[in-house]
Amino acid sequence: MVNLIFRSIDGSEQKVEAQPGESVMEVAKRHDIEEIVAECGGGCACATCHVFFEAEGFAVVGPPSDIESSMLDFAADPHENSRLSCQIQVEDHLDGVLILLPETQQ
Fold first, then answer.
1. If DSSP codes are grouped into helix, strand and coil, which group holds residue 60?
2. Which residues contact 61 (CB under 8 A, 6 or more apart)?
């Protein structure tokens, strides 16, 4: 199991277990993380699964692909450290990563 930590804008945190191979978006939906809307269901066709990371976490997950970067233009308040959670695959090296949730999704 891989442990992920989701932090809401109010500072509350939820630590959840994830299986390698699932997307961070799938994990969030399974654990009822309300800030992850995921309207397109993980097809990288919307930006409603937008998350971001502190510098250390962003170094672990890495930068977005070109297609993902294009979709992030549609996210509410994107940052340089933004990612779409549907495009991040859970792997063992993500254990303990902190995922910052935006205040709103578009």
1. helix
2. 53, 83, 88, 94, 97
Q: What is the CATH number of the domain that holds 21?
A: 3.10.20.30
Number of domains in the chain: 1
Bridge partners for 59 per DSSP: none
Q: Which amino acid appears at position 71 of this protein?
A: M
- Domain interval for residue 80: 2-100
Burial class (CB in 10 A: 0-12, 13-18, 19+), 97: buried
pLDDT tens for the 106 residues of the chain, in order: 999 999 999 999 999 999 999 999 999 999 999 999 999 999 999 999 999 999 999 999 999 999 999 999 999 889 999 999 999 999 999 999 999 999 988 6
The span from the CA of 29 to the CA of 56, in Å, is 24
